[in-house]
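Q: Given only this backbone (527 positions), what sequence would you predict?
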């Protein structure tokens, strides 16, 4: 069992980024100096990188009479990670909460909300900040009346592919018997309203489950959602000769500036149970929805699907559903059997992660076997309950432009922890390869990728690794760095791909009873 680790005390003071090591002729790792973290500081995200340097942001939270005074800190560093500036932006008004920062072409958008308990309204705002750290006038995106905590809608923010527009969505999805509704607002580069509108659905909230949202460069909004046939949100129904089939439809709702109601594109998936799905917009005006499915309500995953639609009129361009073959099922080893029914397929605990559209028209899908359990510590009377997180094997699939499943690969790992900070994975993808970055037990490096992985039981035995999947599906695994090299562990959740060939990452030292040190770095693929 991995020991719970406090990851929230972060403070960045970067000086330089010396070259640390090269793990192959084509993959270099650059790692910055070890830095101290101060109490109350929370590292949030890398925002943007260009030739002038890197932009990141942090939160500093201080409790003040029942609420937190939050300061957002925007910092810029040179390409060699020398600090250029550190600018603070306070949200010290009671009832004001932060919802992150996004890069919008040429600016940053600080997302905020305000809850007014006296007048029972929620207000959502954007505060623009330029590259020099200067904050502009705050803009109100939406304002709603609400009745108690349960009436506050779920909210989502999404950027267009060209990062010139920002969409805000507020969805009433609280499992009620009231009619479902959604409010949308789209703002431009100057954070001025392009359009907004409130839309009502012909079904109740309990029938609608939001999946994902994308914003077109023209300001159109597309939402992928699961829509149940019954108000009680039943998962299955009788399906004739097929036995029981899914009692819901995966639908794409298309919202535009002048339309009073959305266009609805229903995906034809033959009653299969969707285990994970994602939606993307291609550069040639196609809506692409892909994911993984099961034949039974709680059955194993058995295949993938791909639907391509015209983003203009919703015309179906490609619709394909592909079950895994015998060779692929056998490759999945002991992960492929439902012990109760004997069905073959992928374990139901695999969670759909992401869809990446490639220039050649193919699609990369990744998923991870993950779940959590609540356990009890009978020796503790103060905190008897605790949560254990399981982040296990990675599933990698590639679908060609016609919707055919080209290859399937399973990358073995076994991360079990009471804190998921060092768990899961992040990818760097280009046209030919997929690079998977994660922590692993050092003994697994001496085992073949087809072997059952050793469970991580001690952070001292952890190393950061990269598993590379080439264009033919062949896998190879290498050590990225280890604690003896850096005295730090790779943090997947804080890391992201920032260019075609670069991954920005955070490495953090594991210490149980001391302030945590951390480092930032770049993994670079050399062409």
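A: Predicted residues:
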């Amino acid at each position: 069992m991995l020991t719970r680790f406090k990851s929230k005390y972060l403070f960045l003071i970067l000086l330089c980024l010396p070259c640390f090591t090269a793990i192959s002729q084509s993959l270099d790792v650059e790692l910055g100096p070890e830095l101290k973290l101060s109490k109350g500081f929370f590292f949030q995200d890398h925002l943007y990188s260009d030739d002038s340097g890197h932009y990141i942001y942090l939160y500093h939270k201080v409790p003040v009479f029942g609420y937190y005074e939050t300061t957002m800190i925007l910092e810029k560093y040179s390409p060699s990670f020398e600090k250029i500036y550190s600018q603070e932006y306070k949200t010290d008004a009671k009832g004001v909460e932060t919802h992150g920062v996004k890069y919008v072409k040429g600016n940053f958008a600080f997302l905020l909300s305000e809850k007014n308990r006296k007048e029972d309204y929620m207000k959502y705002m954007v505060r623009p900040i330029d590259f020099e750290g200067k904050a502009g006038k705050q803009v109100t995106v939406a304002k709603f009346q609400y009745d108690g905590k349960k009436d506050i809608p779920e909210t989502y923010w999404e950027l267009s592919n060209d990062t010139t527009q920002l969409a805000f969505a507020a969805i009433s999805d609280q499992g009620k018997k009231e009619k479902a509704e959604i409010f949308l607002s789209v703002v431009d580069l100057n954070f001025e309203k392009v359009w907004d509108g409130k839309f009502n659905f012909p079904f109740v909230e309990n029938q609608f489950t939001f999946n994902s949202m994308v914003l077109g460069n023209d300001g159109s909004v597309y939402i992928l959602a699961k829509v149940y046939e019954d108000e009680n949100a039943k998962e299955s129904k009788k399906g004739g000769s097929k036995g029981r089939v899914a009692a819901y439809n995966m639908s794409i709702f298309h919202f535009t500036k002048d339309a009073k109601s959305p266009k609805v594109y229903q995906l034809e998936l033959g009653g299969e149970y969707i285990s994970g799905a994602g939606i993307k917009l291609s550069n040639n005006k196609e809506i692409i929805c892909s994911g993984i499915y099961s034949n039974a309500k709680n059955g194993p995953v058995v295949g993938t699907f791909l639907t391509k639609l015209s983003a203009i009129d919703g015309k179906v361009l490609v619709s394909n559903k592909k079950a895994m073959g015998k060779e692929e099922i056998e490759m999945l080893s002991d992960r492929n059997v439902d012990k109760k029914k004997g069905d073959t397929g992928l374990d139901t605990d695999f969670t759909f992660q992401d869809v990446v559209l490639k220039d050649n028209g193919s699609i990369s899908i990744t998923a991870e076997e993950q779940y959590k359990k609540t356990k009890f510590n009978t020796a503790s009377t103060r905190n008897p309950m605790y949560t254990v997180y399981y982040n296990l094997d990675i599933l990698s699939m590639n679908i060609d432009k016609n919707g055919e499943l080209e290859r399937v690969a399973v990358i073995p790992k076994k991360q079990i922890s009471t804190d998921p900070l060092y768990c899961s994975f992040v990818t760097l993808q280009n046209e030919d390869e997929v690079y998977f970055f994660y922590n692993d037990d050092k003994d697994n490096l001496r085992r073949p990728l087809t072997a059952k992985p050793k469970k991580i039981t001690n952070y001292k035995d952890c190393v950061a690794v990269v598993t590379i999947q080439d264009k033919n599906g062949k896998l190879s695994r290498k050590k990225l760095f280890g604690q003896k090299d850096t005295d730090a562990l790779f943090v997947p959740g804080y890391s992201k791909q920032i260019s075609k060939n670069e991954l920005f990452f955070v490495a953090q030292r594991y210490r149980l009873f001391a302030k945590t040190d951390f480092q930032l770095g770049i993994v670079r693929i050399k062409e």
